[in-house]
Every structure is written in structure tokens, then in C-alpha cells.
Amino acid sequence: MMGSSRASIRQSRAGHVLAAFCLVFSGCSAPATKPTTDPNEIVEAALQVVSADHIFGGPVCFDPLLRGAGLEKFGDTLRLAREEPSLRPIVDRIYAGQAIDWVAPVSDGKFFTPLDEALKRRLAGPFAAVLARQHSNMPPVQRVRSDFIPDSLLYQLGATLADPNCAAVVTISAPSIEGDFAFLEVEQRCGPTCGVGSILAFQHNASGWVVVGWAETWVS
Fold first, then answer.
1. Do 121 and 20 fall into the same domain?
2. Would you place residue 20 in the very low, low, confident or very high pLDDT band (cuts 50, 70, 90)?
3. Angle in degrees, CA 133, 135, 136, rounded to 5
4. Which of 53, 33, 72 shows the shortest CA–CA distance to 176?
5. Are residues 48 and 103 in the same domain?
6. Residues whose CB is less than 8 angstroms from the CB of residue 205 and which lie 6 or more positions away in sequence, other chains included
7. What global pTM score does this model have?
8. Both 153 and 137 in a single domain?
9. For residue range 22-63, what is the model confidence (pLDDT) as tens digits?
10. N or C: at which end does the chain have fewer Cβ atoms within 10 angstroms?
11. Angle at CA 55, nearest 5°, toward 51 and 58?
12. Could you give phi then psi for residue 163, rounded to 5 degrees?
């Protein structure tokens, strides 16, 4: 019993010494705040950017049902592309989180502003991890909440281009998170052979989830 008491006293003193060291030298940092795993928050940030992308010249309808998960569709495309020997080197670089043409999100009417190189490097590892995972690791959500849809997008379940009120239809995948970063896919279709597919990258900061990068994956 006496030995146990002495051990407890030594541990307590060690704890006080460490606390004092942290206060004097700022040598210890507080535990990082774990990013929220609410997928709606990430989806809301994505739709704010998508709604600012005025390229269709008419009403844009948003189908709130999530299509696919994480980077699933993009991964399927890469697997097909890798069957072509001439494409394997570039596909392997993409799997490593490289060879992605990230640009800054649309802001104040400015498109395709090059992304900071340091941020590109920070995106590489999380992107590769999410791509390898091929699914969303976030809480399941079947439908985006209507109050998260910007006024510039028409909230329409099962929206199609056959609807005369839809000049274009936007769909998104369920997001997938990796550390302080998250990714999802966006498809904007304006006809049978008209549209664009993109990946949005998000970073978590004191304000929550914000879009930090945009990369096109296909255009027709």
C-alpha cells in the first residue's frame, strides 16, 4: 500500500511539473477540435459554390437525393482508364493524389484561379486516402435538407432535363472525410451530351467546413 501511495504521489508531481512547463514555455498545445461529421454541413458548403456557377443561362434544378458516395464514380472511371496501358502512369499519379488540376472555388465571378501550391500538397494525402476507400465514411444521409438549398437552385426531387423548368440538373455524392479534409463529386448536366463533372475539396477550420478546391473530372 505504501509503495502504491508513493507511486501516485510521483505521478501527481510529474503531472504538475508538465503543466507548469506547458504554461511557461507554451510547449504543449491543446487537443485539436475534432471536425464535425455532419454531412449536411459539407453539402451546404458545396451548394453555395455550385449555385454561384452561373453557366447554364436558365433555372438550375437540384435533386436532393445523393448519388454515389465519396469519390466512387471517379474511382470507377479511373479503373477503366487504367486498363489502357498508355494511361496507367497518369492514373497511378492520380491515385497518389497528384496530377489533379485543383483550382480555387468560384468567387466574385472569378473562375479557375490557380490553387496555392502548399494547399495542393496538403490535399494530396487525404485525396489519395478517400479515393482508395471508394466510399463515404460519414453518417448516412439519403436526402439533403431543403433549408440547406440556396434560393438560386430549384429544390426538385427526381429532377430531370425533361422538365421545362430545368435548364440544368445538379446532383452530388455523399461526402467522405479524411482528417481535416473532405471530398465529394458534383455533376451538372444540361443535356444528353452537355455537362461537367467535378470534385470539390473541403477543409475544416474554426468556421466549419469550407470549399478550398475544385477539379473538373469530365466535360461534354
1. no
2. very low
3. 115
4. 72
5. yes
6. 180
7. 0.76
8. yes
9. 333 334 444 444 555 677 788 888 888 877 765 666 788 888
10. N
11. 80
12. -75, 125
